[in-house]
Amino acid sequence: MPELPEVETISKDLNKKIPGLKIRDFWTDFKAGKGLGKNIQLPPDIGKFKKEIISRKILKVYRKGKNILIDLSGGKLLLIHQKMTGHLLVGKWQINKVKSLKLKVQSLVSGEMQEKVNNYIHAIFYLSNGRQLALSDLRKFAKIMAGDKDKIEALPDLKNLGPDPLELTEKEFVEILNKQKGKIKQILMDQEILSGIGNIYSDEILWFAKIHPFARVEKLSNKNLKNIYKYTRQVLKEAIKLRGASISDYRDPEGKSGGYDKIRRVYRREGEKCPLTSLGTGLYCNGIIKRIKIGGRSAHFCSKCQKL
After folding, report:
1. Which of 56, 58, 68, 306 has its Cα between 20 and 30 A from that of 185?
2. How confident is the model at residue 184 (pLDDT cuts 50, 70, 90)?
3. Domain with CATH 1.10.8.50 in the chain
């Protein structure tokens, strides 16, 4: 799932490309009533949805948690949550009917846009400059909604989000964690406590802080919590600079991969040696990266320097 660094990259890129343009039309292969996992999540009345967005000017694109928000003229707000495998692309596509009577969406832009991961197009916003904003989503879990800005902001999708970890002071961050109980990895990934951190970056943060993912947050010292704050900022900023991680489906609006997966320390490194070295010695810690299950998700950690 795209996390804070990936969503931040997409939002910033889109904010350079599409403000000032109008939405001319909208297409989707969504079919009402099919349910989660079979179609992207859209309001059941596509006609009404179109009325909320068509002819509106795009004013601004920004991020809240893992949500991409697009301010439209007339006080409207478009919300897109990319969920597990979705990402937004800016380009040109052509919709063709094939022999099976199914629709095939073909990219008219060469290069990275031709990569298979960029060709699961299920929604297209047609823009006034002749370009299109499209959602590619292999598993079709993504969510799109639009309406009056105050009404969208009042929905649980946004209202219940915790604060952005990059906007917190050390004191605020520690105070938030001191109020929690449970395993630290689950706390970091709980979007109502802190918004934007997911599986990838919680693993990376805890490796830097040398804290086991199963460690109980209520038993961690203030020094531990301050270290988590320090490395949360370090890891997220580093990942933003590298334009996110493209370990699986994430790509930027031009269809290009991010660079963080090339330097990730523990996430999906099961069976490899821990990359920690003793400064000035070049000696590795000799721990092996292990994977365990936690709340239906995987956690990766060093068996030696992240002991429980």
Report:
1. 68
2. very high
3. 165-263
